[in-house]
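User: As part of a screening pipeline, I want to sanity-check one entry by hand. Below is the sequence and the SMILES for NAP. Please return the complex as structure tokens so I can compare it with the automated output.
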Amino acid sequence: MNESILVIGATGYLGRHLVAELHARGYHVRALARSRERAEGPGPFGSPSLAGLVDDWAVGDVTDPETTEGICDGADRVVSALGVTRQKADPWDIDFRANLAVLRDAERADIRSFCYVSVLHSETGTSLTVRAKTAFAEALRRSHVPHQLINPSGYFSDLTDLLTMARVGVSMHIGTGATRLSPIHGIDLAQFIVDRVPDAPGEWDVGGPDTLTYRQLENLAFSAVGKKARSIGIAPSLLGPAGWIADRVSPRIGNLTRFFSEGLVTDAVAPPTGTHHIADYFREQTNGTAA
Ligand SMILES: NC(=O)c1ccc[n+]([C@@H]2O[C@H](COP(=O)([O-])OP(=O)(O)OC[C@H]3O[C@@H](n4cnc5c(N)ncnc54)[C@H](OP(=O)(O)O)[C@@H]3O)[C@@H](O)[C@H]2O)c1
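Assistant: Here is the complex for your manual check:
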């Protein structure tokens, strides 16, 4: 019989690609969603609808103990792409506590493995998001459930902000924009993860096939929208004061400011995988609407 995989964070950009890949490989997929109707609609950043890809729905809020108690019954393994990105929630409630609640249930149900998608260089980040992820990764390492920890570079979805800025006509980077990234498409990352699901426990850093500087990525975005590249370098010395001000606006704004500004100054390059190129993705996203 095919193994049953519980996917949490199934309705996000990566989660949808994971469900599609698991379904394509014949796994029995159980997906957690807050709304089945929304999950069966189109996904963010071109990720697929989950209609017809899920064998068994678990519908509920992951922060509700009634949702997580017993959620692993009948599942062989868990894959988690659960985390706060654009949602208005505290990363400690979702990235840490909600993942931990599912891990506790996985321990009770004695499942075969728990695969968690964290983030590259989580050990150095100071944002709430990264600290909450690091804390959960540590809880997972100490669990008796065999773990797989995936540390990806930035996703293509996150870089669509560059297209938004290019459409406006000006983009921004920190310093000279020489920070290097190896961004990865959700399809390539999902394949990498699902390849590892039946394998031995382990931890992997992973990036996409191209390594580019932030300036090069900006130029690709301007080229995709058909505009002349115009970008502004922000002095790195302004990051500290910006973080201080953002913290006083709200913890959420402070967290996002730290998360993104640290991302703009820290190289995020990992062993390459996949076949999808960011230049093609930018062109697809503009869908022939270049100026
Ligand atoms: N984006 C990147 O560049 C990047 C890079 C490295 C690592 N990561 C990590 O990879 C994971 C997946 O990223 P992604 O871009 O696919 O994120 P995403 O699109 O925002 O998906 C996050 C998932 O978590 C769920 N979730 C978030 N807050 C929730 C809440 N309050 N209650 C219930 N569910 C909630 C979302 O459910 P809803 O659909 O209902 O909101 C969604 O299924 C995240 O942990 C992220 O931090 C991302």
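Points to compare against the pipeline: The pocket of NAP is lined by residues 9-15, 34, 44, 61-63, 81-87, 89, 94, 117, 119, 152, 154-155, 157-158 (CB under 6 Å). DSSP finds eleven helices and eleven strands in the chain.
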